[in-house]
Design a protein that fits this description.
Elements (H helix, E strand, L loop, with lengths): L1 E7 L4 H9 L6 E8 L5 H8 L4 E3 L9 H14 L4 E4 L8 H6 L4 E5 L11 H7 L4 E8 L9 E8 L6 H24 L6 E3 L1
Parallel strand pairs: 1-2, 1-4, 2-3, 4-5, 7-8
Antiparallel strand pairs: 5-6, 6-7
The protein binds 5-O-phosphono-beta-D-ribofuranosylamine (GRF).
5-O-phosphono-beta-D-ribofuranosylamine binds next to helix 1 and helix 6.
């Protein structure tokens, strides 16, 4: 049974989807939900499900990313995770941290990578006049939003869409894609999950 730690920064809707799916014959179980923001509402939602939670506020560390990560590593390593899922986690991780979990850290990004790495993905897709958008689960590597793709889900961009309506349509697919990818990944299968 693989042990999965989930890192969040906000509401944790992706975390909830992952936690709710890791039941029954699923080859993994969630063992920790941690955040860089002690006020992240996802922490209370995780605790309400009986999940162990941890928070390390990144703000006191200022620009010293390595010091923040050293503090985050304490509860993280204590949970002895096999897999780490970044789920709405909004901090850029140093190559040193990424290397420590090479090949076993996943992230979900709200675009069809390699298009639109970074922020404001929906606004950029709309501005480009794209007729299709979506989300990607990928292995985390030192290059931001650029690791091997483990799954993608596509949605149409509809006339009249704004950032909020497109984000909502993509988020609904994130909640389908990430659990499907984690279930396959935890079973040792890296075949990409491609949702229509
Ligand atoms: C969402 O915009 C999602 O696309 C991205 O992180 C944001 C918050 O997700 N992955 P969550 O509700 O905290 O999982």
């Amino acid at each position: 049974m693989k042990r999965v730690a989930i890192l969040i920064s906000g509401g944790g809707s992706n975390m909830l989807a992952l936690v709710r799916d890791m039941v029954g014959d699923h080859p993994a179980r969630p063992i920790l939900v941690a955040s860089n923001d002690p006020e992240a509402s996802g922490l209370a939602r995780a605790a309400a499900l009986g999940m162990p939670v941890a928070a390390v506020d990144h703000r006191p560390f200022g620009k010293d990313r390595a010091a923040f990560e050293a503090a985050l590593l304490a509860p993280l390593l204590a949970a002895e995770p096999d897999i780490i899922c970044l789920a709405g986690f909004m901090r850029v991780l140093t190559p040193g941290f990424v290397q420590r979990f090479a090949g076993r850290m996943l992230n979900i990004h709200p675009s069809l990578l390699p298009k639109y790495p970074g922020l404001h993905t929906h606004a950029r897709a709309l501005a480009a006049g794209d007729t299709e958008a979506g989300c990607t689960v990928h292995e985390v590597t030192a290059d931001l939003d650029a690791g091997p793709i483990l799954g993608q889900a596509r949605v149409p961009v509809l006339p009249g869409d704004d950032e909020a309506s497109l984000a909502a349509r993509v988020l609904a697919q994130e909640h389908r894609l990430y659990p499907a990818v984690l279930r396959r990944f935890a079973a040792g299968d890296r075949t990409p999950v491609l949702l229509p």
